[in-house]
Amino acid sequence: MTMKQCLVLTAVIYGLAPIQTTALTTQGAHHQGYLERARSVVQARVDLVDPNDLEKGSHSHIAACLAADQHLEWASARLIRFLENPRGDMFWMFPMTSIAYLGKDKLSEEAHAALRHAWKTYVPLRGDTENHWAMYYGSLFLMAEYWPDLPGSEWYNGKSSEENLEEAREYLIWWMDITTSMGQGEYDCTHYIGEYLIPMLHLAAWAEDPEMRLRGEMMVDWILSDFAIDSLNGLYVGAHARTDDRQVLETWYGLSTFFAWLYFGNTPEPPPSWGIFTAVAAEYYHLPEVLYKIATDRSQPYLSRELKRTRERWRFTEERFKRVYKTTYVTEDYAVGSDQGGLLQPIQQHSWDVTWAVDDPRGVHNTMFSINPYWSTKEMQMYFSEYPDFMPPAVTNQGKPTYMAEDTFLGGSDYEQVFQDLDTIVALYHMSEEANHKHIHGFFSKDLTRLEEDDSGWIFAQGGNTYLAYFPMAAYEWRPLENGGKRLYSPHAKNGTIIQAASAAEFKSWDAFRQAMRALPLEISMDAQPRVWMKTLRGNEVFFEYDGIPMVNGKQVDYAAWPLFESPFMEAAPGSRKLTLRHGDMERVLDFDHVERIDRVIPRDENEFNVNDIRP
Amino acid sequence: MKNPVLMCHLAWPLAVVGSSLLGAPSSGRAEPQHTLYLLVQQTKDYVIGGRRISDSGLFRTRDRKAIQFVSHQQPRPFQIGFDPRDPNRMYYANLNGISRTLDGGKSWKRVTGWNITEPKDLQVDPHNPDRIWIALPDGIALSPDGGDTWQYQDAGIKTRFTEALVVERAFPDTLLAGTERGIYRTSNAGNTWSLVQPTTATVHDLLQSPHDSMRYFAVTQSDGAWASQDGGISWSRIADVPDQFTLHHLAADFHDPNRLALCGWGAGVLVSEDGGKTWQDRTAGLPSREIWSVGSDPDFPGRLYASPFEEALYVSDDFGKSWQPLLFEGALVWEYQFHKEGPR
After folding, report:
1. How far apart are CA A343 and CA A416, in angstroms?
2. Domain edges within chain B
3. CA-CA distances (angstroms) from residue A493 to A39, A140, A429, A474?
4. Which residues pair with B177 in a beta bridge?
5. Looking at chain A from residue 294 to 323, which residues have their Cβ under 8 Å from any Cβ of chain B?
6. What contacts A18, CB < 8 A, 6 or more positions away?
7. Tens digit of pLDDT for each residue in A114-143?
8. Fewest Cβ atoms nearer than 10 Å: which of A123, A143, A393, A582?
9. Do A123 and B73 touch (CB under 8 A)?
10. d(Cα A308, Cα A326) in Å, to the nearest integer?
11. Closest Cβ opposite residue A128 in set B72, B95, B266
12. Which residues of A touch B158 (CB under 8 A)?
């Protein structure tokens, strides 16, 4: 590659206006669509405001009015009323930050004074998770810039503006460094993605410090592309550090889907939730076309591998962050995604699934997976610093109602180990005597169009244009589910699930698919540990034993060489702090080592990727 | 309660924000010489980001009836420490880090940075009150300059989760630490730590006897209770204390060297009248057996406090034989500290 071949369009952009315009990131239709959707959601929020009613309206309504330049008197008056009793900790900080900046020249003097008073007297908790800290320090950084040169007596924590700015900057850079080196801690969260995206977008929008502003923009690119690569028609697929009871089944219903709708426009609009705080700052971020293409182009199947890390582990290990190995295989009809199983996050982990594409995902349970319902004080104490006994019931009472339930479909398990080869999943379970629930259950959706138990032991199913083969490794029974569908209940300590997915278009008929699956060699054993040897539909020989290292075609999986990102569209090496996004001849490099973002057109002879190379 | 601070200080102005559930608990007795500091959460089931119904954080009471809210709002306080040279200087360990006041609690400044979180314990070094020690989920840190700067000081501790600290009052530079995997000791101000007693679960509290500095006690999550007669160098298991419950806290009677109390989740309140050899259940009269903390009062011989989980602060004037609610109905009292201050 010569310099002539390489067209570097954007490099270090300190001090430029919020929206950069380059040949690669022109104000294309994708970007215009994003801005229009943002305006529409902001206006919808404004339309809910009664300017004569000071008793109603949340911080999101105030922010929307300020962004839309409407009902400004109401916004000031309502803000003053709202600040009489602050609550919400860091969930209060970022809305107030956006209101401060959006209202810098629009809020009344009294409203500004109320805002200042609140930041002096209300002491928000910093919290105990990375999403808390991203919101806390992202907001603190911006507000310390907003009110520079104030002494500690003017801030809730007694620190001066300068001290707060420095502390916030130090943390944010530390977090960006570790995230771009060994992956995000709360990775691929269907809701908590917002708790990172919002503060990073706010940095991109309003930081005066040009380096922090650019870092904010680059982190928005990073977070959105991390989502995009693991999405199918806007739905977040595969393994998540955190999701929730509803979205784990109805994969459309959640904040991540709002972001897909907002940025990519490839799914029906769900409720915006906190996402309104990205919409109000939409004009400050330019959606790169390469990212848009990665999110929306499913014309060819691809395999994505990613490295992530667990939340900080306080006990039971000397390894503060355990590595998480993610695999996601995506086609236009379905996606299969997983991590390696185990306790990678407390409470809301989701380790693997198959998600099939549907025309309209609203209300649809377009997913299949199995889990061992799990809760323990060990899990609590690994990730929290508290005493053990009160934690599980407290978690249950504090917004995670199914944590201890035997029929939950949410959460990781210390007794689950997972391996994925392309669109084949093998999940093995070995529950100990101490396990609170000694069964596994598989989710069989109400939206499956076929479901047949075969004499071979396979259960054949169809969802959308996807054929599914599910092999339960131990005896089971069916139990109905309240909201439709049923669960495969298997009360055996040694257990396992094998799933093979395929597109209906690959086979002449449903019967041909069943014949193909029956013909696959498959051996299972439960003697010492659950164990599987099989040949997949893609021709690979997979051997996986609980507590062992999986083998494919006789070769052990090399977890030590797992990439930070590896797919046709994203590349990053562990420790590199550098991510390359690529689609067609478009390339964007996010280089956190040098804090620069580089766009270029890839010369044809350099574009080595051929999607057909990985076609099954 | 690790080690009572017995330095004399000036009084603080009392602004009453609450009062006892009882009448005067000690009518006819002399005015207490120590102020009782309590770390309290009044909002039940508080979730980060949620609504704080009532004040939570640091409270104090001189007469054990009228209470004053001292700190900023803080639903998860852990410990309070006092500078024996300056009555207005206090250190407050809470979820956000360490806060310091120089004006007796009127204003606070957070003196730790982003990298210090959830300090579980805090101890001011009585030999050098500029030294502040804190137990952390990821080790032990020391401030050599009254909280201005902090450094980790935990070489030799492998699994670093640390719940409890005691600064030895008889010998300088000597500390004991209760960690996830046992009790560690240093005699060189934390430059190196040695494991003196391994345990199978986290050591939740350490206590140096107020009567004999060589005597130590420890309670653990699931490894029972332990005692040392030689300054924490060697330890033996207290056979009479069960290990099926999570033990939380220890307290020593300030007047009777043979009286001890401990508590825990399901364990209720256990009391020893023979220096820790045998233990009796003294939970009767409390609303549950889930007791978060116990404390003994230096100004009232035989007085014991207990905090059943999210019930109230209970008091007993016969060392646990009978109980009455005293303060903070419905609240959880995380910790008690007594601090001797001058007459009002």
Report:
1. 9
2. 34-340
3. 53, 49, 7, 9
4. B165, B184
5. 312, 314-318, 320
6. A204, A205, A283, A284, A285
7. 999 999 999 999 999 999 999 999 999 999
8. A393
9. yes
10. 7
11. B95
12. 318
- Residue A224: helix, strand or coil by DSSP? helix
Q: What is the pLDDT of residues B197-217, one digit of tens each?
A: 999 999 999 999 999 999 999
| pLDDT level of residue A609 (50, 70, 90 thresholds) | low
Q: Decide if B95 and A125 are in contact by the 8 Å CB cutoff.
A: yes
Q: Which residues of B touch A315 (CB under 8 A)?
A: 159, 161, 180, 202
Answer positive or negative: Cα dihedral of A60, A61, A66, A68. positive
Structure tokens at A220: 């928005």
Tell me whether residues B309 and A390 touch, CB distance under 8 A. Answer: yes
Lowest mean pLDDT among A187-201, A554-568, A599-613: A599-613
Question: Average pLDDT over chain A, rounded to whole?
Answer: 94
Q: Is A158 on the interface with B (CB under 8 A)?
A: yes
Q: Based on the number of CB atoms within 10 Å of its own CB, is A489 exposed (0-12), middle (13-18) or buried (19 or more)?
A: middle
Give the relative orientation of helices A130-146 and A161-182 as an angle to the nearest 10 degrees.
140
Provide the terminal-to-terminal Cα distance of chain B, rounded to the nearest Å.
25
B245 → chain A, closest CA residue: A389
Q: How many Å apart are CA B294 and CA B333, to the nearest integer?
A: 9
Distance from CA of A408 to the nearest CA of B (A): 22
Predicted-complex ipTM score: 0.92
**Which chain B residues have any C-beta within 8 angstroms of a chain A C-beta?**
45, 47-52, 72-76, 95-97, 99, 107-110, 113-115, 117-118, 120, 137-138, 158-159, 161, 180, 202, 204, 221, 246, 248, 265-266, 290, 309
Residue A97 to residue A202: CA distance in whole angstroms: 8
User: Could you tell me the mean pLDDT of each successive run of 10 residues in chain B, 344 residues long?
Assistant: 45 47 53 93 82 86 94 89 94 96 96 97 98 98 98 94 97 97 97 98 97 98 97 97 96 96 98 97 98 96 96 97 96 94 56
Q: Which residues pair with A308 in a beta bridge?
A: A324
Encode pLDDT of A441-498 as tens digits: 999 999 999 999 999 999 999 999 999 999 999 999 999 999 999 999 999 999 999 9
Mutate to test the interface with A, among B72, B110, B115, B309 (most CBs of A within 10 A): B110
Residue type at position A221:
D
Enumerate the residues of chain B whose CB falls inside 8 A of the CB of residue A381: 202
Picking from B45, B113, B221, the nearest residue to A388 by CB comes out as: B221
Residues of chain A contacting residue B48, judged by C-beta atoms under 8 Å apart:
89-90, 125, 127-128, 132
**Does the pLDDT value for residue A232 go beyond 90?**
yes
Instruction: State the CATH architecture for B34-340.
Output: 7 Propeller (2.130)
Q: Does A170 lie at the interface with B, CB-CB under 8 angstroms?
A: yes
Q: Is B336 helix (H, G, I), strand (E, B) or coil?
A: strand
